Prior knowledge:
3 helices; four-stranded antiparallel β-sheet; alpha+beta; extended
Amino acid sequence: MEMPSIHDSVNDARVAMDCCIFYKDAEYEVPRVLKTPRNKAPERRKKTTKSDKLLVVHRLPAGVLPEHLTEMLLSNTFVSPTNVADIVIAGNFGKTTLEFHSSAHATLAFE
């Protein structure tokens, strides 16, 4: 399979799934992956920084406007960004940054 010259998250996921199916069908012994324990330090109240409220949206097709992103988020997550930066186009795709009222809103929009 020839890989594309640019990064494609969907292609990455497909190839990972193909690998899993191959190993499952071939009945290979795959060692169990152990979870790495999280830092057990006492939880401290984390201050919210501006970057916690931001989401980068990329691989936007040419012609997408900031209003389209706001409408899409409202209709699918009921969360609206407080600011949508200008979309920067490079080649056939664009990217922008969305700012939300809180990190919780950014997380809801991401999920």
